[in-house]
Predict the 3D structure of the following.
Amino acid sequence: MSSGAVLTSQEYITHHLSNLKVGEGFWAVHLDSLGWSVFLGLVFLTIFRSVAKKATSGVPGKLQCAVEMVVGFVDDSVKSTFHGKNALIAPLSLTIFVWILLMNSMDWVPVDLLPHLIHWVTGMPLGDIYMKPVPTADPNITFGLALGVFILIIYYSIKVKGVGGFMKELTTQPFGHWSLYPVNFILETVTMLARPLSLALRLFGNLYAGELIFLLIATIGVFQLPVHFLWAAFHLLVIPLQAFIFMMLTIVYLSLAHEDH
Amino acid sequence: MDINMTLVGQLIAFVVFVIFCMKYVWPPIIGAIEERQATIADGLAASDRAAKDLELAQEKATAQLKEAKVQAASIVDAAKKHEAKIVEETAGKAQAEKERILATGHAEIETERNRAREELRKEVAILAVAGAEKILERSIDGAAHSDILDKLVAEL
């Protein structure tokens, strides 16, 4: 409990799940989610770019080894699933995997650490400090990523199959008879929309739930330490797994978009 | 869930990051990895080749060694034969030389003996004449009686 006895558990959790927001309604921006997201993206690109600049095919340094392990892992995943030629898929998968991994990792930061740091540095009262540091526990972030993937799915579907081919794919299956084409279209549209929705909601749901449990654990007093440790250890599985699933499904969806029936 | 401009901001960041990654991050790293993989593959292939070469060289060396042994044995054989031949030849020559020397010796001895005998015979003739002169106590005309003397000499 951070803000003293005046807060009930519900108020404490609600407070911690509120974003640092500027603007109103649709035009609002979550500064904490977007800020951490961009910061972590820049961390990823800075590290990888510094390795890329000095990349040698000779004996690699330790950082290059680590980066090459990640790149090799992503490259293997892409090559095992996507068989076409596309210069975008692999770097896209790398960005998704590492970026989401870093964003998910913010789940390990103790829930009260950042608000207290801000309180300590700026002197703002804790009740006014809103800081939700896990970007992937914000649906805006996960839907932003999923929307990007969705646009790519549509783009490559049309690019590879043409508008006609894409429409044909949406209408002529699973039922072959012309009278059922509208039904097909509805089914296929739902399938198509389910892809980005499931991508975004799966990631968001896992991380939001994880964050919520961390907050619940933070309200139980002194026993929170071992419980917190257990839950954090469990996230050793959840965090990379969710990043991997998002990347893998992106590759699968794009690979489906490239398949011409 | 309130969906707002954060989503658009995230989408823009996503696009920018992916483009940056595609242009400046992925190609150099994957290039270095693939280049190294090629180098390692080449190195492994080269070591395989070298091992094969070594095996071949060893086989060749063994074969050459065997051949050399056979050759050496045949050379020794030939040398032994040659030696035996030389010994035989030399022995033959020595025998011939010995016989030749013996023959010469015999011939010389024979000549010497004949000569000595001739001299002896002449001396005996002279002694016989001298004895006859003494017996007859008169001088015998050597010229008148030379035919008798010659006959005597021939009889000796």
About this structure: Residues 9-258 of chain A form one domain. The first strand of chain A starts at residue 21 and ends at 22. The two ends of chain A are 58 Å apart (CA to CA).
